[in-house]
């Protein structure tokens, strides 16, 4: 139905349409300035024929060219028919999309709506142009206050600016507009985008040498910042890495290769020879270093040890008494403070110009003259005597790269061994490199061998040269699939001689061989970690002279593509993979990883919330997290500092495959943070990753960014939809969703009230105590209501100052410049901009004014409340009014909610609140601040998210009772921090230790960046069971693990127990078998299974599920087979009941108190026990423990007492009682005591 009367004239229709802009018409056509009110008639009769535009978004000639059926005034046709029929007024306005995206009032043209609102609201005329991106990408346009689209259409496209992220104007012009260089690429794209051969940027399938270089020269999707291992992390093997010293100049290299030659000289020669060929290799953190000072060696040593690498194998160059490249070793020897264990590998091959160790085109040769033997051995011995030199089985290890080139090698090594013994008293282990067909050390009289991939490992692998797409048609190198190399390497059989196995992070010597080398293609940090971890597992059962040892080729072979040092593309990802393999973190990766997904890393509220969520989940609970972002931003480095961070695309074909891989790696849950990232929801569902969907937007923002449809889709796929307040859910129409959860977000910044900071800020502003400050904060735009805040200032009277913290939107600043300048010049309106000390400004203020038109749950209001400020807000603008009402109903705090945009009401409320606030004492304000901070606990918020994301993992409290166990504390905590599932809390319960146990506990937690709670007794309790009781009372979890400070465990201990108790609600206790070690960690028993069998037969041979009573009868009636409480997890409620129920006995029992507690626990109604037969706990046995120092007679008395109590409580048959007597007799014999029966009166039955 037309909005115009049937008899309306064309001029009336044009004039009332809202799309004829008389001011624009005259401004664009200065020759018509005398027309006055006749301007509309001129357009209708002449203007459109002359190509004159009635507004910036209607081009009459273009409209007619696109719509050949239109005769007469094209604007009139558009008003009456065109828009309704979906015709565009100009190429860059889509009325159908616009009307579907934004709320256009009935009978109003979509174009009229856009023209009316485009300067006040962030609206997009077409989905393909993103004004927000444009202004962020080009701050000069934003600073000038220009309209983004107009700037692009007039000037921006000529300057090769991007209309949206993902559009490459240089590529597009080069590809499609080669013969029309002045054309607007966006307009061409809009006209042709449905053609299959048109792409806004170079597609992934379009490859070139230049594209590969560009891609590999910047951080890739697997880029990682360094995540150093804590020193206390438990290493599974001794890891060494080959080290190349050729990063300093020597005269010989200057003569052979040119002045200034080092290994870096070769590096730029490596270029991509085929598609996806990883070249060039560009160093990052250490740069193109020179090894001529101690500093680089110190940094390398620290970097290596933080990745779990014990030391380096330095290549050693000695040619007939001549040393080459010896400067780094000499620096190391001269600087004993450099903490770098090392050993030598004599690189005893000829040097040639071919870089292949051949005898062709020699530069310097090895002659192995017998008269040089003493000098050679003396030279080696100088290094072998260094305190940092690496030993195995007490002997220094000396490696020789190519024993096969040594004439009569067995005899030579006999001579050298003799010289080492007679001249230096050394007995080195001689180890050969497995290369060039020489693999068996026995043939040379050597002690062992070390692998040197790619030598040997590619011998059974297939070349993939036929599968690659070449750029270089002269390429003649050999290309192998890295994944196949890993598979074949791990499958190699055990050798009959000692062997150190070696993994290579990659291999590609194109920089040396230039198209004629060998490439292990397709290496990733994950594949490398699998190789290294697999070799470590083999080394644990195939030790090298008593130690599990593995090697890495190499630390810094840059020109051979074999290095661990950080590079531009992967960052520290390979170092981090080394650390995971070393500790088993990758091997033990659980199914409880959480993907944290955000739309970008722009420094704004939702992005910071996601960042802090990840930080808290790791720090407080030990959750494994990984970030996935749809775009980068200024916070990207901060994200990478917290956890691995990838940038993915929501519509990429590879995204689902990547998510499926991450799911296989254990990331089976995700948190989708904001509707702006909802494009990934279908991919998560397809990859079978359950996710929480956090919504931080409200309707206007969703409309402006066309997010309604993907948001609604994500809501249907999510496990739970999380809104910060019921009012937010209602405004989004989500209140009826079955999967909706209301979870107010926490406060991730600390904003405590400080009187000192209040006075300091006020003094800096020249204000006294009588002045009132009303404060607002955020990015000053229309959504935040900055213009309303300015109006609020205008209403204020007397000594009232208004302060706005944050940057201002350039276009709004331009529109308000007159009023804003007037306000700033008044002396009562202040804009300090974006500040670092927000808490100090909040302390200085008296009231916070939230003038936002739409704001779901702004964190700055939580900060204000946590600074003790009262707040005033407009109603129905988000979740804050609801929060303020709740606070007012529960406390004596005062806040105000006023009608939307009612400035007089806001001014009145703010004045009253400011007066009330200023009259409070500092103590009152601090009290309010503490209450608010507790209410907005971010730990609590993150824990709620964790529980929703991982519902199968209960709240587990870990309590560590300790008394003078400083020596063991670090390992105990490390084994807890390494658990593959998150825990709710970790409490160190110290029983008045007089060593530095707590200092070590705190330092270990700091090293791991983990939260612990330390509770210290000032007076010894005198009983371990008193400490257990205290532990259970203070623990806040549903389950409790009493992890004694001298024990430790495997990383999967808790996860395996939780698997065992899953869907078994009656289980109150679950424990595993243990292996035993002595005070120094030396093995005693690999398992207690044989001990169990003495009493329980085969009941504990395998994983078992018992009722409480059957476990007592079968496994605890004769002796206590739960030998170590550290091996058990208890349901807290039941354990507390049990301990409370036997307090009288626990006051006297010193050795059998745990047995007594288990009896009380398992005689509760309908309870069950789970036992796992794998020894996942490590029980440390001491010679002077309570058990051993207790009087032997008292020990037996306590056992006898437990026997009587068990017999009484369980009505044991005579056969059980007979076994009990036999066990007591066995103990008496073992202790050398005569039978004694009077002790039955010593401990009466409870």
Question: How is this structure best summarized?
Answer:
Helices cover 40% and strands 15% of the residues. With 1246 residues, it is α/β, with parallel strands linked by helices. Helix 20 packs parallel to helix 22, helix 41 runs parallel beside helix 42 and helix 51 runs antiparallel to helix 52.
Structure characterization notes:
This is Glycosyltransferase 2-like domain-containing protein. Residues 957-1079 form the Glycosyltransferase 2-like domain. InterPro entries: Glyco_trans_2-like, Nucleotide-diphossugar_trans, WbsX. The chain is α/β, with parallel strands linked by helices and 1246 residues long. It folds into six domains: 10-192, no CATH class; 238-583, Glycosidases (TIM Barrel); 593-715, 3-Layer(aba) Sandwich (Rossmann fold); 755-935, Rossmann fold; 952-1183, Spore Coat Polysaccharide Biosynthesis Protein SpsA, Chain A, CATH 3.90.550.10; 1191-1246, no CATH class. 40% of the residues lie in helices and 15% in strands. The protein is built from 52 helices and 40 strands. The strands form seven sheets. Strands 31, 32, 33, 34, 35, 36, 37, 38, 39 and 40 form a ten-stranded mixed β-sheet that branches. It has an eight-stranded parallel barrel with strand order 1-2-4-8-9-10-12-15.
């Amino acid at each position: 139905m037309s909005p115009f009367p049937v008899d309306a004239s064309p001029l009336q229709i044009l004039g009332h349409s809202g799309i004829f802009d008389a001011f624009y018409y005259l401004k664009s056509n200065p020759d018509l300035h005398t027309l006055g009110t006749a301007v509309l008639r001129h357009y209708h009769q002449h203007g459109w024929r002359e190509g004159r535009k009635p507004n910036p978004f209607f081009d009459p000639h273009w409209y007619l060219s696109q719509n050949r059926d239109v005769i007469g005034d094209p604007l009139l046709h558009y008003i009456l028919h065109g828009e309704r029929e979906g015709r565009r007024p100009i190429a860059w306005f889509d009325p159908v999309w616009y009307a579907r995206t934004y709320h256009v009032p009935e009978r109003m043209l979509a174009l009229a709506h856009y023209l009316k609102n485009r300067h006040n609201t962030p609206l997009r005329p077409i989905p393909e142009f993103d004004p927000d991106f444009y202004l962020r990408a080009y701050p000069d346009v934003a600073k000038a206050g220009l309209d983004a689209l107009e700037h692009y259409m007039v000037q921006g496209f000529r300057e090769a600016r991007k209309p949206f992220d993902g559009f490459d104007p240089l590529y597009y012009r080069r590809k499609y507009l080669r013969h029309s260089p002045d054309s607007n690429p966006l307009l061409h794209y809009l006209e042709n985008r449905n053609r299959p051969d048109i792409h806004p940027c170079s597609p992934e399938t379009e490859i070139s040498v230049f594209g590969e270089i560009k891609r590999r020269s910047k951080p890739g999707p697997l880029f990682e910042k360094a995540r150093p291992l804590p020193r206390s992390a438990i290493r599974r093997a001794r890891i060494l890495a080959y080290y190349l010293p050729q990063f300093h100049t020597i005269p010989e290299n200057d003569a052979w290769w040119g002045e200034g030659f080092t290994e870096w000289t070769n590096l730029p020669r490596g270029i991509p020879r085929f598609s996806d060929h990883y070249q060039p290799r560009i160093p990052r953190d250490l740069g193109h270093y020179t090894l001529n000072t101690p500093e680089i060696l110190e940094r390398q040593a620290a970097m290596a040890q933080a990745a779990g690498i014990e030391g380096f194998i330095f290549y050693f160059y000695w040619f007939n008494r001549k040393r080459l490249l010896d400067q780094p070793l000499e620096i190391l020897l001269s600087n004993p403070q450099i903490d770098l264990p090392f050993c030598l590998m004599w690189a005893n091959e000829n040097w040639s110009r071919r870089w292949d160790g051949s005898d062709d085109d020699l530069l310097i040769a090895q002659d192995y003259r017998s008269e040089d033997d003493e000098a050679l051995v003396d030279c080696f011995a100088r290094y072998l005597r260094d305190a940092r030199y690496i030993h195995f089985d007490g002997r220094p290890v000396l490696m020789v790269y190519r024993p096969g080139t040594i004439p009569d090698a067995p005899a030579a090594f006999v001579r050298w061994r003799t010289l080492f013994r007679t001249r230096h008293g050394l007995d080195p282990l001689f180890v050969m490199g497995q290369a060039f067909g020489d693999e068996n050390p026995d043939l040379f009289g050597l002690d062992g061998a070390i692998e040197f991939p790619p030598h040997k490992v590619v011998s059974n692998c297939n070349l993939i040269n036929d599968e690659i797409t070449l750029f270089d048609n002269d390429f003649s190198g050999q290309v192998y699939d890295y994944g196949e190399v890993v598979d074949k390497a791990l499958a190699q059989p055990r050798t009959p001689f000692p062997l150190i196995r070696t993994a290579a992070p990659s291999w590609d010597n194109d920089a040396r061989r230039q198209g004629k080398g060998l490439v292990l293609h397709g290496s990733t940090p994950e594949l490398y970690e699998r190789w290294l971890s697999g070799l470590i597992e083999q080394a644990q059962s195939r030790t090298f002279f008593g130690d599990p040892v593995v090697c890495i080729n190499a630390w810094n072979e840059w020109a051979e593509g074999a290095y661990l040092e950080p590079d531009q593309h992967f960052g520290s990802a390979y170092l981090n993979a080394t650390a995971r393999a070393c500790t088993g973190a990758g091997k033990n990766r659980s199914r409880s990883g959480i993907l944290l997904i955000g739309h970008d890393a722009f420094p704004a509220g939702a992005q910071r919330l996601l960042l802090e969520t990840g930080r808290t989940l790791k720090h407080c609970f030990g959750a494994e997290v990984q970030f996935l972002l749809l775009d980068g931003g200024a916070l990207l480095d901060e994200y990478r500092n917290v956890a691995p961070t990838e940038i993915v695309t929501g519509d990429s074909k590879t995204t689902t495959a990547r998510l499926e891989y991450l799911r296989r790696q254990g990331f089976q849950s995700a948190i989708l943070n904001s509707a702006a990232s909802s494009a990934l929801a279908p991919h998560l569902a397809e990859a079978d990753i359950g996710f929480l969907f956090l919504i931080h937007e409200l309707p206007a923002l969703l409309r402006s960014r066309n997010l309604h449809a993907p948001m609604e889709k994500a809501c249907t796929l999510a496990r739970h939809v999380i809104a910060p307040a019921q009012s937010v859910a209602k405004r989004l129409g989500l209140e009826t969703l079955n999967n909706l959860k209301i979870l107010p977000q926490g406060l991730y910044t600390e904003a405590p009230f400080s009187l000192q900071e209040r006075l300091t800020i006020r003094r800096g502003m020249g204000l006294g105590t009588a002045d009132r400050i009303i404060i607002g904060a955020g990015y000053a735009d229309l959504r935040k209501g900055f213009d309303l805040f300015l109006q609020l200032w205008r209403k204020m009277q007397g000594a009232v100052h208004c302060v706005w913290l944050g940057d201002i939107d350039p276009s709004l600043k331009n529109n308000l410049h007159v009023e804003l300048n007037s306000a700033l010049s008044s002396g009562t309106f202040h804009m300090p901009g974006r500040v670092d000390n927000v808490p100090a400004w909040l302390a200085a203020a008296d009231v916070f004014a939230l003038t936002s038109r739409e704001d779901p749950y702004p964190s700055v209001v939580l900060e204000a409340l946590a600074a003790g400020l009262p707040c005033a807000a407009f109603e129905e603008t988000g979740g804050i009014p609801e929060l303020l009402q709740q606070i007012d109903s529960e406390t004596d705090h005062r806040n105000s909610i006023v009608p939307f945009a009612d400035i007089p009401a806001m001014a009145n409320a703010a004045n009253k609140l400011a007066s009330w606030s200023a009259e409070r004492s500092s103590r009152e304000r601090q009290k309010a601040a503490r209450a608010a901070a507790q209410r907005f606990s971010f730990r609590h918020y993150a824990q709620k998210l964790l529980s929703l994301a991982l519902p199968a993992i209960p709240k587990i409290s870990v309590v560590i009772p300790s008394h003078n166990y400083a020596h063991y504390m670090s390992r105990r905590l490390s084994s807890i921090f390494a658990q593959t599932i998150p825990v709710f809390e970790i409490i160190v319960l110290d029983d008045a230790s007089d060593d530095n146990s707590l200092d070590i506990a705190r330092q270990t937690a700091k090293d791991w960046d983990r939260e612990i709670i330390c509770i210290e007794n000032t007076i010894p309790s005198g009983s371990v069971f008193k400490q257990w009781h205290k532990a259970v009372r203070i623990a806040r979890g549903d389950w409790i693990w009493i992890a004694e400070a001298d024990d430790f465990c495997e990383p999967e201990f808790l996860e395996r127990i939780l698997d065992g108790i899953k869907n078994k609600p009656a289980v109150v206790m679950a424990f595993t078998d243990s292996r035993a070690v002595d005070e120094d960690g030396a093995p005693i028993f690999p398992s207690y299974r044989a001990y169990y069998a003495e009493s329980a037969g085969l009941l504990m041979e395998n994983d078992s599920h018992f009722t409480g009573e059957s476990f007592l009868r079968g496994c605890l009636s004769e002796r206590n087979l739960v030998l170590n409480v550290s091996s058990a997890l208890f349901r807290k409620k039941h354990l507390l009941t049990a301990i409370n129920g036997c307090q009288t006995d626990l006051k006297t029992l010193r050795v059998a108190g745990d047995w007594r507690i288990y009896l009380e626990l398992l005689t509760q109604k309908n309870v069950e026990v789970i036992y796992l037969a794998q020894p996942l706990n490590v029980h440390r046995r001491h010679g002077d423990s309570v058990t051993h120092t207790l009087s032997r007679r008292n020990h037996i008395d306590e056992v006898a007492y437990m026997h009587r109590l068990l017999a009484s409580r369980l009505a044991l048959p005579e056969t059980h009682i007979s076994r009990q007597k036999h066990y007591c007799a066995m103990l008496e014999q073992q202790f050398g005591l005569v039978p004694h029966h009077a002790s039955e009166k010593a401990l009466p039955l409870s």
